[in-house]
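Please decode residue identities from the backbone states below.
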């Protein structure tokens, strides 16, 4: 699916060098919701006690806990490595989608930049939760800050650029 999204963002209008408009926003929404839904599902699985009905799943250790447990084999460690690699690939595709979305609609749009900023904050909190629940991205007690790191940096940069443009426009109008 990620390859399909990457290919879609590279699609061009037939006979031109112009990219098909609107695909940045669509791809961004798809990837953002995919990550958000995955993190929500992991949280529901590990946090089943917060529901009034009994959980369908027994309490489980995180993959990192299993990988460090002497009773497990190398497959748990390999699963953590594969999950981290998958998140790096998702991060790469989402960075492209954010940049494309910004180029299409958000260069000088303060309300959209503000929305992206709040989504970045939500994504950062979700990555921290995912790290806590699974151990993905757990490098030296960073609590998941390496998960989706490039995407969050591009989202923050977008917000900062639009904020600085808004300040410049305000200063020049006075």
């Amino acid at each position: 699916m990620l390859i399909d999204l990457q290919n879609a963002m590279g699609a061009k209008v037939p006979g031109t060098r112009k990219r098909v408009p609107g695909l940045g926003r669509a791809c961004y929404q798809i990837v953002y919701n995919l990550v958000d839904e995955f993190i929500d599902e992991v949280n529901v699985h590990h946090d089943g006690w917060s529901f009034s009905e009994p959980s369908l799943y027994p309490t489980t250790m995180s993959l990192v806990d299993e990988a460090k447990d002497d009773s497990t084999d190398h497959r748990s460690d390999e699963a953590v490595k594969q999950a981290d690699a998958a998140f790096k690939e998702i991060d790469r595709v989402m960075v492209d989608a954010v940049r494309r979305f910004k180029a299409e609609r958000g260069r000088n749009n303060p309300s959209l930049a503000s929305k992206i900023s709040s989504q970045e904050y939500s994504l950062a909190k979700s990555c921290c939760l995912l790290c806590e629940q699974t151990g993905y991205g757990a490098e030296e007690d960073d609590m998941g800050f390496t998960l989706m790191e490039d995407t969050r940096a591009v989202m923050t940069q977008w917000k900062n650029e639009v904020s600085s443009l808004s300040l410049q426009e305000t200063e020049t109008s006075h």
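Observation: The mean pLDDT is 79.
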